[in-house]
Design goal:
Elements: E1 12-14, E2 17-19, E3 21-22, E4 25-26, H1 38-50, H2 61-78, H3 99-104, H4 121-127, H5 143-154, H6 170-176, H7 200-211, H8 222-234, H9 240-248, H10 254-264, H11 267-279, H12 301-313, H13 318-327, H14 332-336, H15 345-348, H16 357-373, H17 392-403, E5 405-406, H18 421-446, H19 453-476, E6 488-489, E7 496-499, E8 507-511, H20 517-520, H21 533-541, H22 548-561, H23 582-594, H24 599-607, H25 610-613, H26 620-625, E9 638-639, H27 642-652, H28 689-693, H29 712-720, H30 722-731, H31 735-738, H32 743-755, H33 761-773, H34 784-793, H35 799-807, H36 828-837, H37 840-843, E10 844-845
Antiparallel strand pairs: 1-2, 3-4, 5-6, 7-8, 9-10
Helix pairs in contact: 2-5, 8-10, 10-24, 11-12, 13-21, 16-17, 18-19, 22-23, 27-30, 30-36
């Protein structure tokens, strides 16, 4: 269920809390919600009822991309010969080359039942469970292809194909589509209210508002503004001290100083690096692998993640950022700074597709063209692009570049090796594993020509354990040298032929390695410098390519305002909606290049504008004219992604580990890691439930914009997660909480800490009633840690501290017979703090 658009002042219930947004504030309407479950029951029932309707919904861009990359090639390579319009004889009356024919089926009935793989004849046939129903008839599909087709049907079988679809006139599209036009910096428009604009951005925004007789909102209050800026730039809430300093700073450049401080924070790279890792389909594992001879882990993917974070913190020019990710091994600067080799993880951290190289190459073409160019070039793998002027020959021009590259057997070391006991231990264990591998290889050679399946099976098991042991050692040992996941040019680079209908065995004409015609013209030169990766990088960032800066600016705008100028950041082609502010997009893109491709300068320009600083208060009349706020007459209320939500909970509880960089950590097992979420392991083949429930980007596809859903599991995480409960308990053990003079001051402290604002009088009243209505437990013998706490405050006469110790004792009714870890119940203040953490105000930026 997608969170509905609507009046931000309307009441809506989420996470068991009824909140209302009024003048950029939230008021908790009830604090006893922990004891109620009607919200969860209603939403769970509704989600269950709506599940069968998923197949009828319009397919998402990610679903269509899954079809183009995972489904269409399988159908084209294995089915079209007998079941398409090109077949000499259509067998069984079944055609699979259009959506309608697939649903209509053949003589045996419909080929698929959307959202029901087990009831789909196509899935039954490819599974080979029925000896009378097996397709393809000569050889079963591999496990990866079966899994992809099953997943496709389960998601509702999204399919863009249609019979007799008209082909657009490419020459017209290439000449007229806005995204491919030369980039020119437009003049700043004049506006009626010349006093409102703070930067040229505001002139473009106000000019559009004037056309609809709309006016921008007043500025947001200072507390709202610093909270918005902090989450936008570093993904963490401001501290009470930072809020207080900003509120008291009456200088004209007070907010500019806040922005500069946040841009200089090392946490900026962690926040914005995560945005880019979504685009780079980052993962610490490989996905589909040949398990007999490979391990699922990428032991050194983290070096690419660290490279991205460092690049954002250093404000590395975006054009250099692009070049390094494609061809760092070709740059002279890399010889002086080998850590830049880690940049090439952009190409190599993707899915492995059972080592099917053409699929790996397709994935690399996809991430390059979507990530940098906002184009879906991989749709031209089996046929000319249906919508954009991208012929199949252009796809295979890029294919030749990556087919002329290979990954080295041993990744290059990019860190200094420090001698010592830790490294000695690593080296000894690594050499032991290497010797074991050589022994296994030798035994395999001795078995050649011999029929000994039991011995082969035994050696295969030993090989899997050896490979897994090496990967685990490299990934976890603190002294293991950091290495870069690089690509290298093969000794003899070569051009690729066109694969007719995407079939590798059906080769057409050979095409030269070169850039896309739609962006470089028909007279573009062929790439002859090795594989052509460096030539490709320079072509992408060249002055003649008008789309790269537009794509990046659209991404920045999306993350600052919740919506980009174009709502599909990975596709600016002819199927994308026109930009809401085309002149402003081009102005910022041109300014971005003039400023040396500096992201931090662009952040500053955007955030110091009036449109960024306005409030989110609703205006019913304006909402009727512009219901989706595309003209930005107010600020959008945005929900935090999982990473800043989890990080902010840890920061509020005073428990956030701010150490940067290094090997990934497991976030799912107790004791829970308190490092920032960006350092957590991403397992491509088994993404954790928490990440899925909170719409974290899939590591299978480049994702410039995450889906946003509202499901019961999100509320249950905040209600039941031991990590969240622990932060509530830590809040009321902080020394500043204990030094508060009375209960009112304690409530004020919690509101400042959790929401970065003081409570309203009604909220104080509700809080006091909640604490007073909670029965106090009978004193019980304190555990060792509580006795220590009691001793530490024995000399203090504060009655509240003694009361707090008593409240921490277990209550009755905490029996736990289900084998789970026993946890003492929360006392009144802990329950109250837990309630505050579950409110919408924690999860949303106003």
């Amino acid at each position: 269920m997608t969170k509905p658009e609507g009046n931000p002042n309307d009441e809506f219930q989420m996470n068991g809390v009824c909140d209302r947004s009024v003048d950029d504030r939230f008021c908790i309407r009830t604090l006893g919600f922990v004891r109620h479950s009607s919200f969860v029951i209603r939403h769970f029932a509704l989600a269950t009822l709506l599940a069968p309707l998923a197949a009828l919904a319009d397919p998402t861009p990610q679903q269509l991309q899954f079809f183009e990359n995972r489904v269409r090639p399988v159908l084209a390579n294995n089915c079209y010969k007998c079941h398409s319009q090109q077949s000499e004889k259509v067998k069984g009356g079944l055609m699979l080359d259009t959506k309608d024919s697939l649903l209509r089926g053949g003589q045996s009935g419909a080929a698929i039942v959307p959202a029901s793989p087990d009831n789909s004849l196509l899935i039954k046939a490819i599974r080979y469970h029925d000896p009378d129903l097996q397709m393809p008839p000569k050889r079963q599909l591999d496990e990866a292809a079966i899994a992809d087709l099953t997943a496709w049907v389960k998601m509702g079988a999204p399919d863009p194909r249609s019979a007799g679809a008209s082909q657009p006139t490419w020459s017209d599209a290439g000449q007229k589509h806005w995204a491919w036009q030369p980039l020119k910096k437009p003049a700043v428009p004049d506006v009626n209210d010349a006093a409102w604009p703070k930067t040229p951005i505001d002139n473009f925004i106000l000019a559009k508002l004037d056309e609809k007789s709309l006016k921008p909102n007043p500025p947001a209050d200072k507390r709202t503004l610093i909270r918005r800026a902090s989450f936008d730039l570093i993904g963490l809430p401001p501290t009470p001290e930072e809020v207080d300093a900003f509120v008291k700073d009456d200088s004209p450049d007070a907010f500019a100083k806040v922005v500069d401080r946040l841009l200089a924070s090392p946490h900026y790279g962690e926040r914005w690096g995560r945005h880019w890792l979504d685009v780079a389909r980052y993962s610490d594992t490989k996905g589909q692998i040949r398990r007999q001879r490979d391990d699922e882990h990428y032991p050194f993917a983290w070096t690419y993640r660290d490279y991205v974070i460092r690049s954002f913190n250093e404000d590395k020019p975006y054009n250099v950022f692009i070049i390094e990710q494609l061809a760092a091994d070709k740059l002279p600067a890399t010889a002086r700074n080998p850590t830049n080799l880690a940049a090439m993880g952009f190409l190599t951290v993707g899915e492995r597709f059972m080592d099917m190289q053409n699929d790996v190459i397709n994935d690399r073409i996809d991430v390059v063209t979507k990530g940098f160019l906002g184009l879906t070039v991989t749709c031209a793998r089996c046929h000319d692009h249906k919508f954009d002027p991208i012929p199949t020959k252009d796809y295979y021009s890029l294919h030749g570049i990556f087919a002329s590259c290979a990954e080295p057997e041993i990744e290059p070391v990019i860190s200094k090796i420090t001698a010592g006991p830790e490294y000695d231990d690593y080296y000894k264990r690594r050499m032991g594993l290497q010797q074991a591998k050589e022994t296994i290889d030798a035994e395999f050679k001795q078995l050649r020509g011999k029929r000994d399946p039991m011995k082969v099976k035994e050696l295969q098991k030993e090989m899997r354990e050896n490979v897994g042991g090496i990967a685990k050692l490299e990934m976890t040992h603190p002294a293991a040298p950091a290495r870069a996941m690089v690509l290298e040019d093969v000794r003899r680079p070569h051009d690729s032929p066109v694969f007719i209908r995407g079939e590798a065995g059906n080769k057409g004409p050979i095409v030269p390695r070169r850039f896309l015609e739609v962006l470089s013209g028909p007279r573009r030169t062929a790439f002859t410098n090795g594989s052509g990766r460096l030539d490709l990088a320079y072509a992408i960032v060249g002055k003649n390519d008008p789309i790269v800066a537009r794509v990046l600016i659209n991404r920045l705008w999306l993350h600052h305002f919740g919506e980009g100028f174009v709502s599909t950041p990975d596709d600016l082609g002819t199927r994308a909606e026109p930009p809401s502010h085309p002149e402003l997009l081009d102005y910022l893109a041109a300014q971005f290049m003039e400023d040396g491709w500096s992201l931090k300068k662009m952040h500053r320009l955007i955030m110091l504008s009036g449109v960024y600083q306005q409030s989110s208060a609703n205006n019913p009349r304006f909402a009727q004219i512009d219901p989706y706020n595309r003209l930005l007459w107010r600020s959008n209320i945005r929900r935090l992604e999982f990473e800043p939500l989890r990080d902010s909970l840890l920061a509020i509880g005073g428990n956030l580990n701010t150490n940067m960089y290094g090997r990934p950590v497991d976030l799912d097992r107790e004791p829970f890691s308190t490092r920032r979420t960006v350092y957590g392991i991403i397992d491509r083949s088994d993404v954790s439930d928490e990440l899925v429930n909170f719409d974290v980007a899939s590591p299978d596809l480049p994702t410039g914009r995450r889906h946003e859903t509202t499901v019961p599991q999100q509320a249950l995480f905040l209600m039941n997660s031991p990590l969240v409960v622990e932060q509530a308990k830590r809040l009321v053990t902080l020394s500043d909480f204990h030094t508060c003079q009375d209960d009112t001051k304690r409530i004020e402290f919690l509101y400042e800490r959790v929401y970065q604002r003081p409570p309203e009088p009604e909220e104080i009243k509700l809080g006091l009633e909640f604490i007073a209505d909670t029965p106090q437990p009978e004193p019980a013998p304190a555990p060792a840690q509580d006795r220590n706490l009691a001793q530490s405050v024995a000399s203090d006469g504060d009655a509240f501290k003694k009361k707090q110790i008593a409240m921490q004792q277990p209550r009755k009714g905490n029996g736990n017979g289900n084998g789970l870890r026993k946890r003492p119940p929360l006392n009144a203040w802990e329950e109250y703090a837990h309630a505050l953490l579950q409110a919408n105000e924690v999860s949303f930026v106003n």
